[in-house]
Every structure is written in structure tokens, then in C-alpha cells.
Amino acid sequence: MNTTRGFTGRARTARPGLPPGQYDAGDDWPVLSAEVTPDLTPADWTFRVGGLVAEPRTWDWADAHRMPASAYEGDIHCVTGWSKFGVRFAGVSLDAFLAAAGPLPSATHAVAYAHTGYTANLPLADLTGGRAWIVWEYDGRPLTPEHGGPARLVVPHLYFWKSVKWVAGLELLDHDEPGFWERNGYHPRGNPFEEQRYSGD
Amino acid sequence: MTETATHTTTAFTPPTRFAVPGRIEVAGEVAARWQPATLTEIRRETPRASTFRLAVPGWAGHLPGQHLMLRLTAEDGYTAQRHYSLASAPDDSGHVELTLDHVADGEVSGWFHRVARPGDRVEVRGPLSGFFAWPGDRPALLLGAGSGVVPLMSMVRHHRARRLSVPLRMLVSARGPEDLIYARELGPETTPVFTRTAPAGTPVGRLAAAHLAPLLSEPPAGGWEAYVCGSNSFAEHASRLLVAAGQPVDRIRIERFG
Ligand SMILES: Cc1cc2nc3c(=O)[nH]c(=O)nc-3n(C[C@H](O)[C@H](O)[C@H](O)COP(=O)(O)OP(=O)(O)OC[C@H]3O[C@@H](n4cnc5c(N)ncnc54)[C@H](O)[C@@H]3O)c2cc1C
């Protein structure tokens, strides 16, 4: 072990649920995006599920709001080191959108993409079974543009770069295809509890 | 047969091509390895910021704009890790330099500013991220605030060290002259913007459209590649000004320090 002389660090809170190498950001919610925050109104927003599906489907703002409401209440973890506990997002479970489009048996992965063209790749198994949402509310209020509003993907069990802001769609594939950060040296899956930050971790 | 040959679908391209593609490929193996680094020198830049020079024998080299991850380890095995931009230009000295703001109660920056002295050992991994890198090819318009000037300074230093002729201009925002990091090193390529106090004759105020207008009304051939770095509020403000001044969104790269 390479100990650092004179470094004691903060009091060990041992907060249950804090993944290795992460710290509790408390009330802060840092913003990290590589592009200019787009001017995207609810009227401009659409969400498409395509690729290896029985029937490609596109929802607009009103269509999406007619889907069964679903919320996520829990923790989120950013690869830059902060975690945020007990956040509340409201929207629709991704399972509902996927069920409507009907993934083909050959579909194993997906690329989630934004209205800005940002992409992130995910195994389909990480997007199903009540573990992923399309959300438009944070803490009871409309999601702000810098945090991905009008609507973003939320996949809370993976590092948050997978939770594509300004989400525009999901393309189902029969193979894994790296997204934006994944091509820039980040881990293909990004599980915070296994500290999969960079490719090779 | 290679794995790609078995794919039945072609590579997926989203309907909107990502505005800002990465500039360089990043070597995953290099980024994955923690390496020992020894502090060799500390230089004060401002009352709140100092530069820390580290000897990293296994450093693979970097491009201006990239960052590394730094880890401190306590006696009981507890670790704290943070990202820091590389301030030094790429060279073959076996050293890199970081410039850290002293964040109030900051776990890692607090150790650097209060405890660290030459000879101390820490660990680093990197260089990381090819997105904010500037290989020195395209005309560069750099907008930074506070410690957001750090990765931009690496670009300015690289431009000088290599005597590059490609246009490069930097606008840096600081509260006052005493808070301007690298003040002694800034040259005619740089325009400081002071938000609270300024030397006599220099206006006080935020970065504004008027600062950008002369640069964007007559962009160099091929246009500017804009690099914006600082707090999120500065990044939002500066990137909006750029868009309003006509800079294409797909030529704006933003690094937010959170
Ligand atoms: C890509 C990137 C590049 C960066 N480059 C630079 C750079 O070049 N220079 C630079 O100075 N910074 C840079 N940063 C910021 C840097 O990574 C750190 O966030 C910064 O140094 C603060 O870390 P710290 O450990 O000192 O403070 P932290 O301990 O993280 O504290 C930050 C703030 O949060 C509060 N806080 C956090 N956790 C707790 C807790 N558990 N209990 C109480 N309070 C808490 C602190 O009081 C403080 O106000 C960069 C960030 C990114 C993402």
C-alpha cells in the first residue's frame, strides 16, 4: 500500500451504499456534460425505440406522458467521484417503452442517444427489469435543461454518464458498440460497485 | 473470424451526429494503471492556488487539455481520489504539473495546500479523456475562469514550446489581478477579464459578448475550435455567449469542474 504522508482524510462515515472511491456530494448536484446545453422544449422532444425491435416506435411529449407513471427514489453515482443519496426522479419505466416496440430475441445491447447526438452503450439487461427510466421530473419539479431536461434516461445502478441527458432514443443491437465516453477511454459497462471507471478496470 | 465479421448490423449512427467528437484515441491500458508520483516542487500562483510539480517515471505522455486522476491513501487504507487537469505542456522531462485551488475543507486540495512538501508520494493514473485534448492542429479559442485556466494553460504553453503558428487566443476570468493564475506567464494571446476588482483603467465585469465579438466576427481560416473550462455556471454562461456570437455548437468543447 502506498500511503501518503500526513493524509488522514475525512471522518470515515462508512455510509452504506457508497461505492468504492466515491464521496457523498450531499445537496450538491454537479453538472457534467461535454456539450452546450441544447435549447430543447417539450414540444421539440421525441423518444424513439428502434433497431432490433418488432415495431420501431416514436413517442412525443404527450404520448410519453400517457404511459404508466413510474418513479425512481434512490442513489446516483458519477464517475468523477460524487454520489448523491435519496434523489427522486419521476417519469416512465423504460420497460413500458421497450414492451411497446418489442425487442427481437437477437437484441443484446443498446445505444442510447441524445438530441445533441451524445451516445452511451448499455447491455439490454441493464435497461430492463425495472432498472431504467425516462424521466422529466426531479424532486417534484420539471427536470432543468442542464440536468438533461425536458427528459433524460436514468440508469441509476451504473455510473451516471450512461444516463443520457436530452434523450432522443434507444437503438437495439446484437452487439456492443461504444458510445461517446466509452470511445474516450471509459469503461464499457460502468458499474460503480465494481469501480469500472476506465477501460481496463 | 473476427468478432466484427459476425455482426449482422452495421455501426449505428444516431440521427443527430454528436456535436463534438473526441479529438484523440485514448490508450485504455495506460489509463488503467496507478503509478507512483513524487512531489518535487511547489510554486505559489495566487493566495488560493499553487502549482505542484510531480515526477512520474512511467508517464506515457499527454496532450494539452487532458487530465489525470490522483489518489491519496491514509494509514488505514482509506483513499480519496480526484481529477486534476494537466497544467504542463507535453515534454519528455518525466514530470507533470498540476495547479490546485485550495477548496475550503477540501479533502484532497487541503492536503496539498497544508501538508504536502517535496519528496511526498502520491499516485496518479492517466492521461484521461481525449475529448478536451488539443493536439495543436486547429485554431484554438480558449475561455476559462478560476482554475479552469489550468488545462488551457497547457495549450498556451504547448503553442509556445512548439512555436506553433496556428492562431490561439485565450480569455480568462478572475475575481481580481491577485487571483489571476499564471499572471506572470500570460502574453499578448491572453485577455484577462476581472469580475470584482481590476487595475486602474481596466473595466470590472463578467465575460461579455463584447469580448468575443472581435474574435468571432473575423474567425481564422477553418474557424475556431472553442475550449471552455471552469465551474458549471461559467461554462453555461461562456458557451451561451459563444453560440450567440455565431460559434457552431459542434466546435465548442466544455470541461466542467463540477
Ligand atoms: C475533469 C476535471 C478536472 C479538474 N481539474 C482541476 C484543476 O486543474 N485544478 C483544481 O483545483 N481542481 C480541478 N478539478 C476539481 C477537483 O477534481 C476537485 O473537485 C477539487 O480539488 C476539490 O477536491 P477536494 O478534495 O479538495 O474537496 P472536497 O473534499 O471534494 O470538497 C469539495 C466541496 O464539497 C464539500 N464536501 C465534499 N464532500 C464532503 C463531505 N463528505 N463532508 C463535508 N463536506 C464535503 C467541501 O466542504 C467542499 O466545499 C477538476 C475536476 C474535474 C472533474
Plain-language structure description:
The complex is a heterodimer of chains A (201) and B (258). The mean pLDDT of chain A is 94. The two termini of chain A are 18 Å apart. With 201 residues, chain A is mainly β. The longest helix of chain A is centred in the middle third of the chain and has 8 residues, at 94-101. Chain A has a single domain, classed as Oxidoreductase, molybdopterin-binding domain (Sulfite Oxidase, Chain A, domain 2), CATH 3.90.420. Chain A has helices spanning 61-65, 94-101, 180-183, and strands at residues 23-24, 46-51, 57-60, 69-77, 82-93, 109-114, 119-123, 133-138, 141-142, 152-154, 167-173. Chain B has 258 residues and is α/β, with parallel strands linked by helices. In chain B, strand 10, helix 5 (232-244) and strand 11 (252-256) form a beta-alpha-beta unit. Chain B is globular, with a radius of gyration of 19 Å. The N and C termini of chain B lie far apart (45 Å). The interface between A and B is large, with 55 and 64 residues. The structure holds flavin-adenine dinucleotide. Chain A: This is Sulfite oxidase-like oxidoreductase.
In short:
Chain A is mainly β.
Q: State the name of the first-level CATH class of the largest domain in chain B.
A: Alpha Beta
Order of SSEs of chain B, N→C? HEEEEEHEEHEEHEHE
Fraction of residues in H or I helices of chain A = under 10%
Q: Which value, in Å, is the CA radius of gyration of chain B? A: 19 Å
Strand content of chain B: 25-35%
Q: What distinguishing features does this structure have?
A:
heterodimer, A: 201 residues, mainly beta, Sulfite Oxidase, Chain A, domain 2, six-stranded mixed sheet, five-stranded mixed sheet, 3 helices, 11 strands, B: 258 residues, alpha/beta, Elongation Factor Tu (Ef-tu), domain 3, Rossmann fold, 2 domains, six-stranded antiparallel sheet, 5 helices, globular, disordered N terminus, binds flavin-adenine dinucleotide
